[in-house]
Amino acid sequence: MRYRVLVSDPLAEEGLDILKEFCDLDVKTGLTEDQLVDIIGDYDAILVRSGTEVTARVIEAGKRLRFIGRAGAGVDNIDTEAATRKGIIVANAPEGNTLAATEHTMAMMLALARNIPQANASLKKGEWKRSKFMGIELNEKVLGIVGFGRIGREVAKRAQAMEMKCIAYDPFITSERAASLGVEMVSLEELFRRADVITVHTPLIKETHHMINAETIATMKDGVRLINCARGGIIDEKALADGIASGKVAGAALDVFESEPPTDSPVIGLEQVIVTPHLGASTVEAQKNVAISIANQCISVLSGGSAKYVVNAPMVPAEQQALIEPYARLAQKMGRLLVQLIEGRLESIEVTYGGEASELPNTKFITRVILKGVLDPILQVPVNLVNAEFVAKERGIRLSETTTEEAQGFKNIITITARTDRMTETVSGSVSGPNRARIVSIGGYMTDLTPTGHVVISRHTDKPGVIGKVATILGRANVNIAGMQVGRHRPGEEALMVLTVDSPVPPEAMEEIKRVDGIHTAKYAEI
User: Fold this and answer.
1) Where are the beta strands (DSSP E) in 375-493?
2) pLDDT tens, residue by residue, 329-368
3) Rg of the chain's alpha carbons, rounded to an integer?
4) Residue 207 pLDDT
5) What is the mean pLDDT of the chain?
């Protein structure tokens, strides 16, 4: 099957060439929202840059959409919540333009320090006014970096080479991590108070909109210089213009604006403000890199794989993958087993992380993996890591996640409890190495089950003859038993039997097992 992909903004040929090998590709740029709504129902994926607005209305019309890709870092032109509700993966290409944005920031900072654009314009008019363009040295100045992600870290590296002192604010970066890079992590208030030059590298969200405003500018040093090569709207342009007029702000360099093109911006006509038309990612290398990245992610998702830079589902940073993945693999298997053991309408899922598992850096990701394992086999709608929580919520399934130091004799343990209108069932699992994960308890009975293959799980009265009768039934059905475990609390009472078998068990054989004297419940499951 060849998928259909729409590219609605200009994309480098290198990315288009990759897509053409895999899918039927249409490049249609400059579309209005109405035009996009009219045609999007025919496509499995849409790739955009910053020009196309992928609104909730567009997403609703995209009946076949499985992937929305942004060839660049920002996704504020995509309604990610609407996409999430429909189970559509949204991904970007944040690394492809990192160096381009970093170098543009450095260029803006140097130009701002030495008044280079203004001096260039003056000289070209035939003027020779050296004293008018007196600049400052960046050596030993304090650079305040708001947002210490990829670009912020690269800016710090280059600023340190010029012997600037770097301080940073980022609520998601530890002081220890920043210190290892030679950067002091401070509060936003302290950064505004101490920095000679401030550069912002955050997304535009509710918390960062007008982060730099009249009130915060008032707390800054006299003669501060501001740089924004991130997103328009982080700096209140009216407040910036007022700050420059009062002399509080010596100058600013802006690559992005609240409204683009910024025809009505109060800063455009100010001599102290250097402006460029959103050029942060505009290098040949960056456009090639982001096009290739988003094309490959699109192909991966449409082929049944995953996207490297998903933005609307919990991500696992590269440095956490080796730690998280064994737990995630086990968790999905546990969820899949659990849903095959329960009966009735699912009301809640409770996940408990114990011991070392309680200290995992990304339990939210693992919980979504569990939800996918539970919901995928029982629902008609596609369930993935993007929409699992929404799907559960829409169906009234309550979700809770807790942590505890107790691990029931193991180094780590994950316990999933499913409650229905008819019963409660639990499954616990533990990881003892990168390739060794076990289901260690079912319904409170100890097990040691490799989470793969075919199993028959039954509860029965602990008395002679029951296990033999079950084995006889499986033998007549030509089902080979590969392993057997029996867990019990006290002799003669209820016991749990887990049989691993080499092939699926026919339904009629399972019905016969359920009729064996002493068998309370019996379930066949594929893990």
Assistant:
1) 398-404, 412-420, 424-433, 436-442, 445-449, 454-461, 481-488
2) 999 999 999 999 998 888 899 999 999 999 998 898 899 9
3) 30
4) 79
5) 92
In our burial notation (b when 16+ CB lie closer than 10 A, e otherwise), range 463-494 reads eeebbebbeebbeebebeeeeebbbeeeeeeb
Greatest pairwise CA separation for the chain in angstroms: 106
DSSP code for 505:
P
| Burial classification of residue 5, based on how many CB atoms lie within 10 Å of its CB (0-12 exposed, 13-18 middle, 19 or more buried) | buried
Structure tokens at 447: 């097990």
User: What is the spatial distance between Cα 481 and Cα 474, in angstroms, rounded to a whole number?
Assistant: 8
The count of other CB atoms within 10 Å of the CB of residue 462 is: 18
- Cβ atoms 144, 227 nearer than 8 A: no
Show which residues are catalytic: 231, 260, 278
**Cα 330 off chain centre by:** 20
Residues paired with residue 225 on neighbouring β-strands, in sequence order: 197, 251
Residue type, 391: V
pLDDT band of residue 384 (cuts 50, 70, 90) is: confident
Angle (CA) 418-421-425 rounded to 5° is 30
Instruction: Check if the beta carbon of residue 100 is closer than 8 Å to that of residue 285.
Output: yes
The total number of residues shown for the chain amounts to: 527
Q: pLDDT tens digits, residue range 242-254?
A: 999 999 999 999 9
Residues 413, 319: Cα–Cα separation, whole Å = 22
Sheet containing strand 165-169, strands side by side: 184-185, 165-169, 142-146, 197-200, 224-228, 249-254, 273-275
Check whether the bond before 261 is cis (ω within 30° of 0).
Answer: yes
Structure tokens at 473: 């039934």
To 10 degrees, the CA torsion angle through 337, 343, 345, 347?
-60
Per-residue tokens: 270: 């100010």
Q: Which DSSP string corresponds to 286-297?
A: HHHHHHHHHHHH
- Between CA 268 and CA 271 the distance in angstroms is 8
- DSSP letter for 133, please: G
- Alpha carbon distance 212, 199 (integer Å): 11
Q: Is 327:360 a contact under the CB 8 Å cutoff?
A: yes
Q: Tokens in use for 8?
A: 């609605």
Categorize the per-residue pLDDT at 422 as very low, low, confident or very high, splitting at 50, 70 and 90: confident
